[in-house]
Amino acid sequence: MGFLLVDRLVEFTPGKAARGVFAPAPEVVAVPSFMVAEAIGQLAGWLAVEKADFRSRPVAGLAHEVWSSGFTAAGKVFDLEATLRSYSNEAIVYEGRATLDGVEVVRVTNCIGPMLPMEDFDDPEAVRRRFIDLRERGEENPLAPDTLDGLSLVIEERERGKRIRALLDVPFSVPFFADHFPRKPVLPATIILDYGLQLACDATREALGREPEARVKETRLRSMKIRQFTPPGTRLELETKVTSASSNQGLLSFSIRRAPQPGARADGEGQGRALGTARAEVILEQAP
User: Fold this and answer.
1) Do both 163 and 216 map to the same domain?
2) Which of 40, 134, 137, 284 has the smallest number of Cβ neighbours within 10 A?
3) What is the pLDDT of residue 74?
4) In a domain, 111, yes or no
């Protein structure tokens, strides 16, 4: 299965802007919003690595906001846009959006990606060849239904309408590590954030007294910070807390910490500095 989500580069203005296509496999029924945000980030990444002559690449760092509508996308193709706002040897700043049938469904603003040596993550020449292929004919490496197989989120604590705490065990081997990344496998930060968004949506439904299947109209994650990589074998603790809830809207905080492995002595490892944080806003559809 593929975690290289840009399937074709439609337009490419070096160092400035690009348009591309993200085409999940037809049998994928639900595409997580953060998987689309990842595709936008990868499109911006192509702008950065081409400008760096494939010597360095950006990784997830900070994002001012990721907005998403409550879209469904079975059998759909996403049109992607990304713009580099600034570039240096240390970091890039970018923004972008994704549309379905001309309607905006995901938007990312003021994202900062630190630039690190390409050779630490992938073969620079293999990346160069992939870039040429994307510009000339595109790839056949679609997002598949089994993308997240091997990952599971386990709820540990729940104070209904107030907070949810869960554990996420990162396997030592999952297929997408071959793409992310061949020389340094790590769990994509967007997958962690998507699990956090799921918790935020659940907590909002509970805080508002809505049914578990109540539809989400739109979401926003703001002030996102990812401070460390998450290698295979890591156990993460994800926690979301409701700060306010009224009408159809919930405001929440979200944090990620490293948790002790099963059987390990609890030494406070999971209670230290957060590996990632964000603020969330969840708006539900009006109750029938």
Assistant:
1) yes
2) 137
3) 75
4) yes
Token couple for 174: 């999952």
d(CA 154, CA 7): 32
Expressed as residue numbers, the domain containing 74 is: 8-136
pLDDT, residue 272, reads 59
Query: Is the domain of 178 the same as that of 279?
Result: yes
Separation of alpha carbons 215 and 275, rounded Å: 30
Within-domain flag for 142: no
> Which pLDDT score is estimated for 265?
54
Number of domains in the chain: 2
Span 75-92, average pLDDT: 95
Q: What is the CATH number of the domain that holds 128?
A: 3.10.129.10
What are 185-220's pLDDT values in tens digits? Answer: 999 999 999 999 999 999 999 999 999 999 999 999
